[in-house]
Sequence to fold (349 residues):
Amino acid sequence: MTTDNLPEEGSANTGTETAHGQDIRALNSKIEKESAFLDLIKLEMQKVIIGQSDMIEKLLIALLANGHILLEGVPGLAKTLAIKALSGCISVDFSRLQFTPDLLPADVLGTMIYNPKNQEFSVKKGPIFANFVLADEINRAPAKVQSALLEAMQERQVTIGGETFSLPEPFLVLATQNPIEQEGTYPLPEAQVDRFMLKVVLDYPKASEEALIIRNNVSKTPFPKPKPVVSAVEVIKARDTVREVYMDEKIEKYIVDIVYATRDPEAYKLKDLVELISFGASPRASISMALAAKAYAFINHRGFVVPEDVRAVCPDVMRHRIGLTYEAEAENVSVEDVISKVLNVVEVP
Fold:
């Protein structure tokens, strides 16, 4: 990217200097260099994942913005494979939890084990103590197991037997779930869902992509595996750099307006949504959208946020944070429809 692509001074997207007094062009140059490793991750993941470029991008956003991600789709769409591929690109500890109806909270967090020799209890840590935790089919476990993740996801710590243990950094929960309509699934509680920065809904691959998937899976050639191309230290450093990405006050107001439009649609000339929304997005949505927009700009090797970044991440940030009424269900109005109307009406800076 050249400096010719930078917004004009005084525009909604940037100024001559950031809040830290750092020249926006210098910041842009710095981020171009420090975000180069993302292209390597994409290349390694594309060796394993055919298509689904949007899913790969959203996984990287969650990784860079220090958030958790929920992937929803029917079985066989490479949700688990994508998460395993991402962990294979980064030199970190990885653990997988297959959620089932008989799973217990102790199976996730760990428990106290009694040693009869010295007559003492000792802590046996669970699989949650890893950098990347794959919670596979999270909605197949009952609410008490799902809620066991709450403290870990929000506070980055776990309490076992009255003792609190910090989780390693970076720490990322990557959960998959089947559509709620499928048999044997439990809806995630609102408090649990809100802890996920993004909820990404996956669709079937294109016909040409599926043909390539078949070819790769029936070939004699061993299935490719991604190579580690970045360390945990580099990921933590990149997360710090993402927060340096410049966001103008007008972009901040744009985010606030989008979120507030789901809480008070009438104030934004969206009277037709008043009877369709039971509750709007939480303040966590505003925070997540700002961080995700910065991460999206970073992925695109840019040192400043533009409105298109916000619009790109908005559906994934908002779709699990808006409640619909029975009237919306009766009229076959989806959350995506609501978000689309909001984005079409709220004024872009």
Summary: Residues 1-5, 8-21 have pLDDT under 50 and may be disordered. DSSP finds 14 helices and 13 strands in the chain. The domain at 36-101+129-242 is CATH 3.40.50.300 (Rossmann fold). The chain has two domains: 7-22+244-349, 36-101+129-242.
